[in-house]
């Protein structure tokens, strides 16, 4: 038997739109939910839990439209063990090609005593009745005893036996508070599977929260204990410290699949794009050091690491970021970078200098890196220009002025110097100061690129704080990223946009003053 045939298929149940949306401040409009759901289907998740239909008319409508539109993906209708919840979930998912009803009720004594105010016998009876009621409408029933890891094995077994007898087909044992240790969670699944009457007839699912940072480890432990479905969220968002991160779990399985003998159906090239869509739509920034999709996950500043990576990527990377749709940008120029990394970055722009000029660039670089830690590409090009008395970048932002006010449109003027020394000034308007500036620069640098993304980060605190701007533009499905650092964040964003445009121009070989087909663009600029 080949390794591929021996692999255990792990089903990915995505609850970004339900549990993930319960993160404070992460509320979504119905239209936004639909956009994310489409991307989740493109990513290849097995099940989407689009929301809590009974909670609001908008939530119901979003679940209903997602059920109608995404006919290739199974849809889970979420409900408490309450008839009204079940009715709403059943109606909302009625048009799904494949659907399930996901029922839950608290099971731990602390929840029963202080939240439900019911006895264990009452909970078992409610669970029985509601699973039986749901079974009249939906064949696939997933049941979750909430807070099962703090419930006690005896009652978990009793409750699970009761719902299996009434027709539950999937048993989810949630670590609702992120309390379990991996060995405890694995043992919970093994015990329930082997000791529950009828336990061999159902599938098992894990739902882990990350309060102790163990959500991914616990999910892998659950798989060892017999779970074949893991419930996750994109970027690990969710209540408190979040849920098991989809991208972390999937890449742990993918990277160590030979050791784990597991696989998923996730389309890896869509991982990064899905992460970005969720982050932007929910206005939830991704931590720099977030595994897989964080900004620093595949970037290196250490000179030793950079030298190894330039010789062989596998020296300091265990995954290929480009396989996940992550733009290749592994070398970060900073105070720990050496000459090799600086030469490599210059070569990417087609720049070569002699030994004396290189030393001058290197000394300038180290002085600036000591002051601000990171050196951006446009700053490096400026150093090269000073050392060689040339202008290596096609466009330079010479001057910027912005007029803002509460009762009027923002007005901006920008002066750009081209590589031949010509300087031109452009004016523009916008609803915000940055929009006004971008309109000016787009006149000055007429490249057919989409302004895709802007990130702003504070690099320090206090009155002299510096802001870092990262701008991404897209041209012919290729991304170009520019960065800049300045106390004025509007100026930093403008410089970053110009840097991104310079990358595009230099990569395409288009000269300032001409379009991509070589025609003069002065008439377009005006």
In the sheet with the most strands, the strands line up as: 2-3-4-5-6-7-8-9
Shape call:
elongated
Strand content: 15-25%
- CATH domain class of the largest domain: Alpha Beta
- Please identify the structural class as seen in this structure: alpha/beta
Number of discrete helical segments = 19
- Tell me the CATH topology of the largest domain: TIM Barrel
For the biggest sheet, the summary is: 8 strands, parallel, barrel
Report the uncertain regions.
513-526
Name of the CATH architecture of the largest domain:
Alpha-Beta Barrel
Number of strands: 16
Q: What's the structural domain tally? A: 3
Q: Report mean pLDDT, rounded to a whole number.
A: 90
What is the H level of CATH, i.e. the homologous superfamily of the largest domain?
Aldolase class I
Radius of gyration: 28 Å
């Amino acid at each position: 038997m080949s390794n591929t045939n021996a692999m255990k298929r792990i089903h990915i149940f995505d609850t970004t739109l339900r549990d993930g949306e319960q993160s404070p401040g992460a509320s979504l409009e119905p239209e936004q939910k639909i956009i994310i759901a489409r991307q989740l289907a493109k990513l290849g998740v097995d099940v989407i839990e689009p929301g809590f239909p009974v909670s609001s008319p908008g939530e119901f409508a979003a679940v209903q439209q997602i059920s109608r539109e995404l006919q290739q993906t199974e849809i889970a209708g979420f409900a408490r063990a309450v008839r009204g919840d079940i009715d709403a979930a059943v109606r909302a998912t009625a048009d799904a090609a494949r659907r399930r009803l996901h029922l839950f009720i608290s099971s731990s004594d602390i929840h029963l005593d202080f939240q439900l105010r019911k006895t264990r016998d009452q909970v078992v009876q409610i669970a029985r009745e509601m699973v039986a009621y749901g079974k009249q409408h939906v064949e696939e029933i997933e049941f979750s005893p909430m807070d099962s890891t703090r419930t006690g094995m005896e009652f978990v077994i009793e409750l699970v036996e009761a719902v299996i007898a009434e027709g539950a087909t999937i048993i989810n044992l949630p670590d609702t508070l992120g309390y379990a240790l991996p060995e405890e969670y694995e043992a919970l699944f093994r015990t329930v599977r082997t000791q529950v009457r009828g336990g061999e007839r159902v599938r098992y699912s894990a739902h882990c929260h990350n309060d102790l940072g163990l959500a991914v480890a616990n999910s892998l432990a659950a798989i060892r204990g017999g779970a074949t479905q893991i419930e996750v969220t994109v970027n690990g968002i969710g209540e408190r410290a979040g849920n098991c991160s989809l991208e972390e779990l999937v890449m742990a399985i993918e990277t160590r699949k030979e050791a784990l003998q597991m696989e998923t159906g996730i389309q890896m090239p869509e991982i990064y794009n899905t992460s970005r869509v969720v982050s932007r739509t929910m206005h939830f920034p991704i931590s720099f050091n977030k595994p897989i999709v964080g900004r620093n996950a595949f970037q290196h500043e250490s000179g030793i690491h950079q030298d190894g990576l330039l010789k062989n990527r596998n020296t300091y990377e265990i995954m290929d970021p480009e396989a996940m749709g992550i733009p290749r940008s592994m070398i970060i120029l900073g105070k720990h970078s050496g000459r090799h990394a600086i030469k490599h970055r210059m070569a990417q722009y087609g720049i070569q200098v002699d030994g004396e000029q290189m030393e001058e660039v290197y000394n300038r670089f180290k002085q600036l890196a000591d002051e601000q830690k990171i050196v951006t590409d446009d700053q490096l090009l400026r150093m090269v220009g000073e050392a060689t008395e040339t202008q290596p970048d096609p466009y330079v932002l010479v001057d910027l002025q912005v007029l803002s006010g509460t009762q009027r449109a923002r007005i901006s003027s920008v002066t750009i110097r081209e590589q031949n020394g010509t300087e031109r000034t452009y004016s523009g308007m916008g609803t915000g100061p940055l929009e006004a500036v971008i309109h000016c620069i787009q006149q000055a640098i007429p490249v057919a690129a989409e302004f895709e993304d802007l990130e702003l980060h504070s690099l320090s605190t206090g009155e002299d704080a510096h802001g870092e701007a990262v701008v991404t533009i897209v041209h012919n499905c290729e991304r170009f990223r520019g960065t800049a650092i300045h106390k004025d964040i509007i100026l930093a964003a403008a410089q970053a946009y110009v840097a991104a445009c310079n990358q595009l121009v230099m990569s395409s070989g288009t000269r300032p003053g001409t379009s991509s087909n070589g025609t003069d663009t002065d008439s377009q600029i005006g």
